[in-house]
Design goal:
The complex is a heterodimer. By secondary structure, chain A is an alpha/beta fold. Chain A has helices at about 25-40, 65-75, 90, 95-105, 120-125, 145-160, 175-185, 215-220, 245-250, 255-260, 280-285, 290-310, and strands spanning about 55-60, 80-85, 110-115, 130-140, 165-170, 190-195, 210-215, 225-230, 265-270. In chain A, α7 links the parallel β5 (about 165-170) and β6 (about 190-195). By secondary structure, chain B is an alpha/beta fold. Chain B has helices at about 75-85, 105-115, 140-145, 160-170, 185-190, 195-200, 210-225, 240-250, 260-265, 285-295, 315, 335-340, 350-355, 355-360, and strands at about 5-15, 20-30, 30-35, 45-50, 55, 60-65, 90-95, 120-125, 125, 150, 175-180, 195, 205, 230, 255-260, 305, 380-390, 405-415, 420-425. The chains are: A alpha/beta, B alpha/beta. The interface of A and B includes residues 116, 141, 142 and 176 of A.
């Protein structure tokens, strides 16, 4: 295990997505995150790794858990964390994304944690600032820290990622979590399946190194991990699937469908859960199978590792002109 | 009018007569008097073309000039300068201005502004439906009488089958052309790029390529019932081109065009969310790009138009899905079209025909030919000159081009309208 004081090299300026990361990059982040798990369970959680560093959480889309997770991660490492949400006045006034980026940049933050409802928006912002930018979810594109925390959760329970059979089920088409997880799991040598009705599978999904299923009983057969995705309410009322009832009947995870998976298969969900829509309440709460709460815990550890990796180096900050 | 001028020492290129030889062109009073190997001097002013090409001026059948309404993006004056520098002698504006060109007075306004600006000739289409709303027909007969060249709803498809049928049917009263933006709008709704692997990877909402051929196939049925003259704009997919190819084979009176970005680029130009590569219809897969080249080679695609669509920085410096669509094209039309010749895909005279003779024929304009009696509209260009496209040098008000820095070959040296030089590279800043 990496010691807490060992230098930690991460050869990227930003974390915009899983795509582009090497197996070593991912393993490095996961190893580092693992060192924080124990400390986070103790009464005294504070460290000084990021003392003097400023981290701004910039959320253009509401999110409680991801924002809180990043905030805790930054504070536990001793950094100063500021939250700016879409209620922030100038964002509301219609200031453009780039103007917001330039304004915040002038305040010399060391890292910006950004969530935005549009794909590519975080990358666009990263091109206009001097500091590190961490993608906390952009549209339907990527949510890299979610994939990392999922990987850490799996690794702790299964001891590895390599060779595992993972089924990602539900609204793959609109899911940034699915895209990041497919990229990460493929990079780390897991085998990935996607299981969804055709209307919720993106175009050319078979070219992403996944096996495609439209039947849960086939798709879940012998899998080690069942990753459920959240189905947005507006997509289940006749537009992509005819009804909640029909969706749950064919694609909701219950014990009957789960029976074809490996007996020790883990159940995961990025949250927040729609109980009775994509997952049966009892399954979600099954203490032996469901690792949904553990995922939340790993989230803080992974985000600590990411913040450390990206905001520790002094930034080259150009003086104001 | 202009003095008697003899353009000598030129490589004359006339797609209509398949002429390609050294020769001279004599111009008087805005018209071509004679075209030949050696013409009598007769005291004419001499212009030595130094062996460069002299061809009919480009007829760009699809541009947006943003005047009236969005003069901060382009005006007829800035668009006129850009067109002149691109070897374009006639361009035709879409009616999607503010206000929409759906009234007589607005057609007359364009004609008057074109005369005032006095550069590239500017003609206009009129809206097919009032306010481009796709519901009620415009006064096609009166608008045609005022000089509208054809009817179109611009960058919007005439989507309702009943409205399209009536527009086509009514246009036949005046033997007028209807131009369609062929895209099934419900399939394209909310889409940001062509659907497929890249859109999925980028998490961008996709537009299925089938949206294009579906609208064309529907329209072809309506053309069969109405007997109208129909033109499909900016084809981007192999299936759509094949549908037009089959229709032409059946003897239908239909034509189509494409724009340089559909044969010079494919969907990979979107790269990491480059909004300058966002265009409507979207850039397509490589197979479709090749099909566009083949359509130009075999003549299925009649014309190449710039599809000039100026967008200011504020409209493009946005997350990809929110950014505006469009590419400025007046100053890059000629060199990008000449890539087809330089890379051996399409013969030179066919490329030039698609840029001048064919659009002029489709729109029944007295242009696009080098022959005695024709209006003296032509471009003198260096066919081989290598240069790099530089958006900072554009005369257009906007810089939204994905071709910045692209090495190209061939450049307009002099553009002549009615015998008058409206652009000269020597005088260019």
């Amino acid at each position: 295990m990496t010691s807490l004081s060992a230098p930690f090299s991460f050869p990227h300026r930003h974390l915009l997505g899983i795509e582009g990361l090497s197996p070593d990059d991912i393993t490095g982040l996961l190893d580092r995150a693992e060192t924080y798990i124990e400390r986070n369970r103790q009464a005294d959680k504070k460290q000084s790794v990021l003392r003097g560093r400023t981290i701004i959480n910039l959320f253009f889309e509401s999110s409680t858990r991801t924002r809180t997770s990043f905030e805790l991660a930054g504070k536990r490492l001793g950094g100063d964390v500021i939250n700016m949400s879409e209620q922030w006045s100038s964002i509301r006034k219609g200031e453009t994304l780039i103007d917001t980026a330039v304004t915040l940049n002038a305040m010399h933050p060391d890292a910006l944690v950004v969530r935005h409802p549009e794909s590519g928006a975080v990358q666009l912002l990263s091109e206009k600032v001097d500091c590190a930018v961490i993608n906390a979810g952009d549209g339907m594109h990527e949510h890299p820290t979610q994939a990392l925390l999922d990987a850490l959760t799996i690794r702790l329970r299964k001891g590895r990622l390599q060779g595992l059979l993972v089924a990602i089920c539900g609204d793959v088409a609109h899911s940034r979590v699915a895209r990041s997880n497919i990229a990460l799991l493929n990079t780390m040598g897991a085998r990935v399946r996607v299981v969804a009705p055709r209307t919720l599978l993106p175009a050319a999904v078979e070219r992403f190194g996944v096996e495609v299923f439209t039947d849960m009983r086939q798709g879940l057969k012998d899998v080690d991990i069942v990753m459920m995705l959240r189905l947005q309410l507006e997509r289940m009322q006749g537009s992509y699937v005819p009804s909640l009832r029909e969706y749950f009947h064919f694609f909701g995870l219950d014990y009957e469908k789960l029976a074809v998976a490996k007996p020790d298969a883990l159940i995961m969900h990025p949250g927040p859960i729609n109980r009775g829509v994509e997952i049966d309440t009892e399954v979600a709460d099954d203490i032996d199978r469901s690792v949904i709460r553990q995922q939340v815990e790993m989230g803080v550890a992974v985000r600590m590792a990411v913040l450390e990796a990206l905001s520790q180096e002094p930034r080259n900050i150009a003086p104001a002109k | 009018m202009t003095a008697r001028t003899l353009f000598t020492n030129a490589r004359l290129l006339d797609p209509a007569s398949q002429l390609d030889r050294q020769g001279e062109v004599l111009v008087d009073d805005g018209k071509i008097v004679a075209v030949g190997a050696s013409l009598p001097r007769d005291g004419a002013e001499l212009v030595d073309c130094a062996g460069h090409c002299l061809a009919p001026g480009l007829v760009d059948m699809r541009v947006q000039l943003r005047e009236p309404g969005d003069e901060h993006q382009e005006t007829m004056a800035t668009g006129g300068k850009a067109a002149a520098a691109g070897g374009i002698t006639t361009m035709v504006a879409l009616p999607n201005t503010d206000p929409v060109i759906d009234e007589l007075a607005l057609v007359e306004f364009i004609a008057r502004r074109s005369r005032d600006v006095g550069l590239t000739r500017i003609r206009t289409y009129a809206a097919a439906t009032k306010g481009l709303r796709g519901k009620e027909l415009t006064e096609m007969g009166l608008l045609a009488g005022a000089g509208a060249l054809a009817f179109t709803d611009g960058v919007a498809a005439i989507a309702d089958a009943v409205v399209m049928r009536r527009a086509l049917s009514y246009a036949t009263n005046f033997d007028m052309l209807v131009i369609q933006h062929p895209e099934e709008p419900r399939l394209a709704e909310g889409g940001a790029m062509t659907s497929g692997e890249i859109a999925t990877r980028l998490g961008l909402p996709g537009i299925t390529p089938a949206a294009e051929v579906m609208m064309i196939e529907r329209d072809l049925r309506l053309v069969e019932i109405t007997g109208a003259r129909y033109h499909a704009a900016h084809l981007s997919t192999g299936d759509a081109i094949e549908a037009i190819r089959a229709a032409k084979k059946r003897g239908m009176n239909v034509t189509c065009d494409t724009a340089p970005h559909y044969f010079a680029l494919n969907e990979t130009a979107v790269g990491d969310y480059r909004s300058f590569a966002k265009v409507s219809p979207p850039l397509r897969a490589e197979d479709d790009r090749r099909a566009v080249v083949e359509g130009l080679r075999d003549g299925t695609i009649d014309a190449i138009a710039s599809d000039h669509a100026p967008q200011d920085q504020e409209s493009k410096r946005l997350p990809f899905a929110s950014a505006a669509s469009g590419i400025v094209g007046l100053e890059t039309l000629l060199p990008l079209a000449l890539e087809l010749y330089h890379n051996g895909s399409v013969p030179l005279l066919r490329v030039l025909g698609a840029l001048s003779q064919r659009p002029a024929e489709i729109l029944r304009l007295p242009a696009g030919k080098l022959e005695a009696g024709a209006q003296a509209d032509f471009a003198i260009f260096d066919l081989d000159q290598p240069w790099r496209i530089a958006v900072d040098a554009f005369r257009s008000k906007c810089r939204n081009s994905p071709f910045d820095g692209r090495p190209v070959q061939g450049r307009a040296l002099r553009t002549v309208v009615a015998g008058r030089v409206i652009f000269s590279a020597d005088a260019a800043a």
